[in-house]
Amino acid sequence: FNRNDWVYDVQWSPDDSQLAVLLSSEIQLLDITTGQSRPVKLPPQEVRGLSWVNRQTLAFSLLHQQQWQLYHYDLVSEQLQLQPGAWAYASYDATTGQVMYVNQQQQLVLADQPLPLQIPPIVAGERRFNFDLLAGQLYFLQKSSPEMLPTFSTIILETPAQRQVESSLQQQNKPQQSTTGFVLIQYDIAQASGKIIQRLAQESIFSIGNDGIYFTVDQAPEADIFLLRLTSEGQ
């Protein structure tokens, strides 16, 4: 985008043809083939919990009657519709049709059943989800501690995409067996069991794709400091 704005979230469409980009007060749709973008026709406002329902529908939450509530936006008709159930947020797996709802008490709910998991915050930075849902697997970050380590087992990254992730994160995440930092957990919803698939030295934004896991790690900005000395004449 040819302007200064804060990007809070980026979500691939189910067919990988578009990116929905969540900015400070709007959503932009970026066509991958042409590189052209267009705004979603909404009044400028804060948007949270962006997700694709299907190829032509976006889901997100807006502040309504002093509560965050779930909306759907049809990209064809350009119509916005408040969803029933008074849900605060919802994350959709467009490939399977599964929906992970978040109620007003910030509990995760799948198929009308609350999940026995505590994942604070539900929306990291008050805008994007701190979890991802794909094919019956829930992925989320959790702060590592000696107390939680026995709960989850560590697996070896085996696929080429996973090995690439492991290689790219080695410098940020040494030592691998540290009990401090963060861990990325893959939780099998049907089996109600989870496993650690990556250890991180710092909190990172992540997304799950068909070819692997994408991480974003903030780097400290660099700056040059200049000293201007004034002469006695003020020049």
Keywords:
globular; 4% helix; four-stranded antiparallel beta sheet; 235 residues; mainly beta
Question: How would you describe this protein?
Answer:
With 235 residues, the protein is mainly beta. Helix content is 4%, strand content 42%. It has one helix and 21 strands. The strands form six sheets. A five-stranded mixed beta sheet has the order 15-16-18-19-17, with no helix packed on it. It has a four-stranded antiparallel beta sheet with strand order 1-2-3-4, with no helix packed on it. The chain has a four-stranded antiparallel beta sheet with strand order 5-6-7-8, with no helix packed on it. The longest helix has 10 residues, at 160-169. The two termini are 41 Å apart. 24% of the residues are buried.
- Poorly predicted ranges: 149-178
What is the tally of helical segments? 1
How far apart the termini lie comes to: 41 Å
Global shape: globular
Estimated structural class: mainly beta
Which strands sit side by side, in order, in the main sheet?
Answer: 15-16-18-19-17
- Averaged pLDDT, please? 79
Rg value? 21 Å
Largest sheet: 5 strands, mixed
Return the string of H and E elements. EEEEEEEEEEEEEEEEEHEEEE
Q: What is the beta-strand fraction?
A: 35-45%
Percentage of helical residues?
under 10%
Number of strands: 21
Task: Detail the topology: elements first, then pairings.
Layout: E1 9-12, E2 18-22, E3 27-31, E4 37-39, E5 48-54, E6 57-64, E7 67-74, E8 79-82, E9 89-92, E10 99-102, E11 108-110, E12 113-114, E13 123-124, E14 128-129, E15 131-134, E16 137-143, E17 153-154, H1 160-169, E18 182-188, E19 193-200, E20 205-209, E21 212-216
Parallel strand pairs: 17-19
Antiparallel strand pairs: 1-2, 2-3, 3-4, 5-6, 6-7, 7-8, 9-10, 10-11, 11-12, 13-14, 15-16, 16-18, 18-19, 20-21
